[in-house]
Amino acid sequence: MGKVTAVFLDTVSIQKYIFTSNSLKENLGASSLVERIFQEYLHETIEEICGTEIDMEAWFKTPETIQLKTDQTKLVEIGYIGGGNALLLFRSEDMARLFVRKWSLKLLIETPGLQTAAAIDDYFSLNPEEYQKNMERLTKSLDQGKNTLFPNSVLTKHGITADCIYSGNSAEVPYIDAEGREIYISAVSKAKRLPAENNEHHMDKVKEKFLPKGFAFPLEHEQLGQKEGKSYLAIVHIDGNGMGKRFMECKSLVETRKLSWAVRAASENAYKKLIRKLANSMEYFKNHQEEFEIWQDKNNRTILPLRPIVFGGDDITFVTDGRLGVYLAEKFMGILAQEPLEKVKNQNPIYTSAGVAVIKSRYPFYRGYQMAEELCQSAKKAAAKNPDSNWLDFYISQGGYSQALDGIRQKHYRVKEGSLNFGPYLVGENSKGKENTMINLKNGMNELRKWPRAKVKELRNILPMGKETTKRYLENLKARELILPKIEGPSDYYKDGWNNAVTPYFEMLELMEFYPEIDFLSEGELVWI
Q1: Angle at 411 between CA 408 and CA 416, to 5 degrees
Q2: Whole-model pTM?
Q3: Phi, psi at residue 171, to the nearest 5°?
Q4: How far apart are CA 129 and CA 507, in angstroms?
Q5: 28 vs 120, which has greater pLDDT?
Q6: Could you write out the three-class secondary structure of 466-496?
Q7: How far, in Å, CA of 71 to CA of 60, rounded?
Q8: What single-letter DSSP state applies at residue 499?
Q9: Higher-scoring residue by pLDDT: 353, 202
Q10: 3-state SS of 310-347?
Q11: Which backbone phi and psi does 115 adopt, to 5 degrees?
């Protein structure tokens, strides 16, 4: 058999759909719905139009077997599912087009507000030597569709309708709120909130995969561990470096299947290891409850200070207490880079870039997510210049700035002397010759923690005044044997705080309050300064 009809499915503005609400319940529910569109809803639609059972797991259990080639009774099979895409192969063009119509209609009903795109290729060859050319053509067609068609997947809002209190859309469906009152909200909000509230299938799957017995995930941002007066949460967005190129380099469907599944398995294993390490460390948090709020759920299970929102690939997002964001992001990246990619041709580790936005708990969540995404893009620029390495960028929002990251750094992190921004930072041990590394950042924070707190605060105010002012201040501190930490690398920043119009110490001072003093996931006691 030579040609089949391929359907390539994608989601549009998926991050906006998941993170546009300030409610963690809606974020989790939206993430659940996105997972379902390529699982349950896809499964149900295929069975409805084919009238037969389909094995949704065959593509990764036996990736070498192309069923449309080996079994003439098969009408459809999964090419692969991963990275926010799904490739389906149909024996019949009519059946492929019917699938797209019915699947789209189902999503309009079950997942209002979520936008998807589909490309159909009636001449998709199953011959391995034509695979790359076929996928390039299909991807180009999908991109053209996404850039030219903008479907409306929510009911139009009229002037006479009430506004939904959660989304601002038209309030058109009844809903029982947390206090038992019947109110009207938008279909989009209701669809997102119900999966989290009803603890449905997807939530159970998440728990089964990651949670040790006796622990639970938070359902509210307030349950992440923040204390009164230290109410910050961290939004962590991590993305694989060069993964799109690795997928495009796959020379056959079998290679794509193996890589897609291996990336998913590695990511989930890394998540599981991080969460289990965190669960094993909860005793330290319990010993410092004056700094950290420990929650129990209704079944007396300990609630972890971390909640995965997007997982199962190289695109990862989780929320945690503001003091844990950079630390846990760094840990996750290190664990993931150690995970083997089983059964794939290119065994190179998954290197990633991370953006960590530390925001006040009441700060608009979607704006915080956008910041994390911008920080991740900033880290990716450094990764592009330094292949095979992990990079991280962070921003701690003390105010209510609404500009984009570049605007904030231009306005608030540039002074007459130069830049107060030293990142992004290289993560890991392979940092020889680099100055902007997490190792230098952590060593510097450890040295500065030996200073009197009043002097640390003074230094933070002095640094923006420039090199000469900082130099005079440091001269005065010498009598108290206080000197700036040395930065591994060619520049002598420690002499007067600045070199080549940049200082590494300002972000170091900012992060000190948002990074644990002890590596508690590995050993030692957790202490907050």
Answers
A1: 140
A2: 0.90
A3: -85, 100
A4: 51
A5: 120
A6: CHHHHHHHHHHHHHHCCCCCCCCCCCCHHHH
A7: 17
A8: B
A9: 353
A10: ECCCCEEEEEEECCCHHHHHHHHHHHHHHCCCCCCCCC
A11: -105, 135
